[in-house]
Design brief:
single chain, alpha/beta, Ribosomal Protein L4, Chain: A, 6 strands, 14% strand
């Protein structure tokens, strides 16, 4: 794969880096990406919706009126689903929506998503991002300098200053290499990698 330029936060080119074809240059498998994103979305569902059926609703222990001779339809309980205040028919109950996709499929989908970003030229490599104090304004200035809007930042290690500086920017998300996932790669338009994070990400894919 052709090399990408490495920039500092002033948008000056400082070097070039060669990305691995096995990670950033493979054929894109949209079906795999779909399955993994569906898995991630399902795992985020709370599954706490709950309704009461006819046996759960309070009251209704006595038959409202006798079976025959009244001229009305027969009724066994006032908590019948067709009565106001009765139970719910086939209502939702707490459940777990999550399911698992094989590890090899998850890794292949992640590689496909990274290759998609590279193919669309939506990857930016920064040498580093030096910030001595928490300043959202300064962080935003760097983002605007590169013309970025929706950005996923990937760091090689924890950086509380960067993380807190970007906290109030809803179109920015910062994570470490071990947290990179298909859903976030697709959600954000651009992928910004610190140079040390590139080798860590490639190493994780080959492990």
């Amino acid at each position: 794969m052709p090399g990408l330029n490495v920039y500092d936060i002033e948008k000056n080119k400082v070097s070039e880096i060669e990305l691995s074809d096995s990670i950033f240059g493979v054929e894109i498998h949209e079906a795999l990406i779909y399955e993994v994103v569906k898995m991630q979305m399902a795992a985020r569902r709370l599954g706490t919706s709950s309704t009461k059926g006819r046996s759960d609703v309070r009251g209704g222990g006595r038959k409202p009126w006798r079976q025959k001779g009244t001229g009305r339809a027969r009724v066994g309980t006032i908590r019948s689903p067709i009565w106001r205040g009765g139970g719910v028919t086939f209502g939702p109950k707490p459940r777990d929506y999550s399911f698992r996709v094989p590890k090899k499929m998850r890794k292949a989908a992640l590689i496909s998503a990274l290759s998609m970003k590279a193919k669309e030229d939506r990857i930016l490599i920064l040498r580093d991002f030096p910030m001595e104090e928490i300043k959202t304004k300064k962080f935003k200035e760097v983002i605007d300098r590169f013309g970025l809007k929706s950005v996923l930042f990937v760091l090689d290690k924890s950086n509380p200053v960067l993380e807190k500086s970007s906290r109030n920017l809803k179109e920015i998300k910062i994570m470490r290499t071990e947290g990179v996932n298909v859903y976030d790669l697709l959600k954000y338009d651009s992928l910004v990698l610190l140079e040390p994070a590139v080798k860590m990400l490639e190493g994780a894919m080959f492990s």
